[in-house]
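Q: What structure does this chain adopt?
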Amino acid sequence: MLTRVTKVEGDGGAAPVRAPGFGAGLRDGIPIALGYFTVSIAFGLAAAAIGFPTLGLALMSATNLSSSGQFAGVAVVAGGTLVELALTTLLVNLRYLLMSMSLSQRLQPGTSTLGRLVVAYGVTDEIFAVELGHRVVRARYAAGLMALPILGWTSGTIVGAVAGEVLPESLSGPMGVLLYAMFTATVVPAVRRSKPVAIVAALAAVASALLYYVPATSGIQAGWRIIIATLVASAIGAWLFPKGTGLDDGAGAEQTDLEVHR
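A:
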């Protein structure tokens, strides 16, 4: 395992900390890669079933590396506009802003701008959780940690998309429902362990249903309904549950479940 000793200032003065390198990152990324590969096959199948080309899906997975964002994005693209796609993806992935801010405090002193960009590119729930286990995170370690998960997520998407193209219509057609099922699955772990999150999720569902069934708003496109419902539910949730009453309320809050991906 490649490591480097870095001095970290603390209450007791400078203390040497072993900062793992690229090789250690590769090793730690293996379990994440296996999980991503499995889930992305289903994503590729479902997206191909509603008409997305294999190359486009491969580029999407390689450049986004966000299961929840991609699930939501593909659903919006199927019946929305580019503006709706951008806003929906921004809202779904906004949590990465907070993760990146937290992670920036653990980066090795002197990390270059390029190194920070490399680390930022690979921020996902699972990779972030692993990096939190280190007092100091090197850009090389982050690069190694994300290398196999990126490969697993992208290759799994390709496998699923290719399989979706060769499967008969009777089998590939119903796969489109997987997008909604898998996006729901990414929310379930947080809903089960946090009452505030469960309430906000329920509020979003109610808001979405009202927007769809109320005659005055039923004409709004699906993508905008998602955006409006998300903003309304988030605003009400922030009012009902201010700081200190959120996810887990304490120990273990930094640990995340495996997003059926990510």
